TrEMBL record:
Coiled coil: none annotated. Keywords: Membrane, Transmembrane, Transmembrane helix. PANTHER family: CONSERVED MEMBRANE PROTEIN, MEMBRANE PROTEIN. The chain crosses the membrane at residues 7-24, 36-56, 85-109, 115-132, 144-162, 182-201, 213-236, 263-286, 298-315, 321-339. This is Membrane protein YkvI. InterPro entries: YkvI-like. It comes from Paenibacillus sedimenti. The keyword Cytoplasm does not apply.
Length: 346
C-alpha cells in the first residue's frame, strides 16, 4: 500500500510539474497540437512516449547518482565543461519561468478575482515560502491535491464535448501547415517542459529509495500527461476554428458550463501556476545551495524577492520575450539527453 501511494505521489508530482498555466488555459495545446488538425493525435502520442521515456530516465539516473540537483546530473551526462554551461542556462531559464509564473498568479487575482496584481503576487509568494521551506515532500503533497482536481476537470470537459455535434473533429480536421513543422512541434514542446521539469524530477529521484517507485511513477505520470493533452485537444478541436481567437481557449468552453465549473477552472489555473512556480523555485534554490554558502531559507527569500521584482514587468511581456528562446535551446538539451542517456530503466 505504501509503495502504491508513493507511485501515485511521484506521478502526480510529475504531472503537476509539467502542466503549467499555458496547459491549463489550453493555449499551449492549441499552439503545439490542435491547430495542426487530425495529425495532432499522433504527435501527442509521440510527445507522450517522450515524457514516459525521458522522465523515467531522468529520475533513475538521479537516483543512481544520488544527485543533489540537476547540475550533478548534467555534469554526469555531458561532462563537467558542457554540463556547467547547460546547468547555467537551466538556472537562468528557471528564474525566468519562476517570474513568469509569479506574474501569472498576480494576473489571475487581477483579472478573475478583481483584486490588485500586487495582492496576487504577495499571496503567491507567502504560500510558496510556506511550501518550499518544507522541502520536496511538501511539493509532492501540493501536487497530490492540485492534480486530481485537474484530472476531474478534464473528465468533465471530455464528457461535455462528447455530446457536441463536432466531437469528431479531432480525427478529421485538416491543416495547411508543413509536415516538418507539425512533427517538430512535439519535440519542441516536450523538450522545453522536460528541461524545466528536471528541477523537481532530479531531487525527487535522488530522495526516493525504491527504483521501482520511480519507474512506475514516471510511467503513470507520462501516460497521465498524454491523456490530459489528448483530452484538451479533443475538446478544443470540437470548437475549431473559432476557438483559436481566444487567449484562454479553455475558458471559452468553461463559460458555457455554469458558475461552479468556472470556479473550478479558476482553481485549476491558479493551482497549475503555483505548482510550476514552486517547482522551478525549488530547483533553483538547490543549485544555488551548491554554489554558495548561504543558508537554504536565506537563498529562498532572495529568489522569491528577485522574482517579485522582475514580475513587475507583467505576465504577457515576460511570456512573449522568454519562451521562444527557452524552447529552442531546450530542444538541444533533449537531443543531448536522448543521445547521451544510458541509465538502465528496470
Amino acid at each position: 500500500m505504501r509503495t502504491g501511494s508513493q507511485i501515485v505521489r511521484v506521478a502526480f508530482t510529475y504531472i503537476g510539474t509539467i502542466v503549467g498555466a499555458g496547459f491549463a488555459s489550453g493555449q499551449e495545446i492549441l499552439q503545439f497540437f490542435t491547430r495542426y488538425g487530425w495529425m495532432a493525435t499522433f504527435t501527442i502520442a509521440l510527445s507522450s512516449m517522450l515524457f514516459v521515456w525521458i522522465g523515467i530516465k531522468l529520475m533513475l539516473m538521479a537516483h543512481d547518482l544520488k544527485a543533489e540537483s540537476y547540475e550533478d546530473l548534467n555534469k554526469a551526462l555531458f561532462g563537467k565543461k558542457i554540463g556547467d554551461w547547460i546547468s547555467l542556462f537551466t538556472m537562468v531559464v528557471l528564474f525566468g519561468i519562476t517570474t513568469v509564473m509569479l506574474a501569472g498568479g498576480g494576473t489571475v487575482f487581477e483579472e478573475q478575482l478583481h483584486l490588485s496584481y500586487q495582492t496576487g503576487l504577495l499571496v503567491t509568494l507567502v504560500l510558496a515560502y510556506l511550501v518550499l521551506s518544507r522541502g520536496i515532500g511538501a511539493i509532492m503533497t501540493v501536487n497530490s491535491v492540485v492534480v486530481p482536481i485537474m484530472l476531474l476537470f478534464s473528465l468533465v470537459i471530455v464528457i461535455y464535448t462528447w455530446h457536441s455535434p463536432a466531437s469528431g473533429n479531432w480525427l478529421r480536421i485538416t491543416s495547411d501547415y508543413p509536415i516538418a513543422k507539425i512533427w517538430f512541434a512535439p519535440f519542441l514542446y516536450t523538450a522545453f517542459n522536460l528541461a524545466m521539469a528536471q528541477a523537481v524530477l532530479v531531487p525527487m529521484g535522488a530522495t526516493i529509495k525504491n527504483r521501482s517507485v520511480l519507474y512506475w511513477g514516471g510511467l503513470a505520470g507520462g501516460v497521465g500527461i498524454g491523456l490530459l493533452l489528448l483530452s484538451a485537444h479533443y475538446a478544443l478541436s470540437a470548437q475549431m476554428p473559432g476557438i483559436s481567437q481566444f487567449e484562454i481557449p479553455m475558458g471559452n468552453i468553461i463559460t458555457r458550463l455554469g458558475s461552479i465549473p468556472q470556479i473550478a477552472y479558476l482553481l485549476v489555473i491558479y493551482g497549475e501556476i503555483f505548482t510550476t512556480f514552486i517547482a522551478d523555485a525549488y530547483g533553483l534554490s538547490l543549485q544555488l545551495q551548491q554554489r554558495t554558502k548561504l543558508h537554504p531559507k536565506v537563498l529562498l527569500i532572495i529568489i522569491l524577492a528577485l522574482s517579485y521584482l522582475v514580475s513587475q514587468i507583467g505576465f504577457k511581456s515576460l511570456l512573449s520575450a522568454l519562451y521562444p528562446l527557452f524552447g529552442l535551446i531546450s530542444t538541444i538539451w533533449l537531443v543531448l539527453m536522448i543521445w547521451r542517456n544510458r541509465s538502465r530503466v528496470v
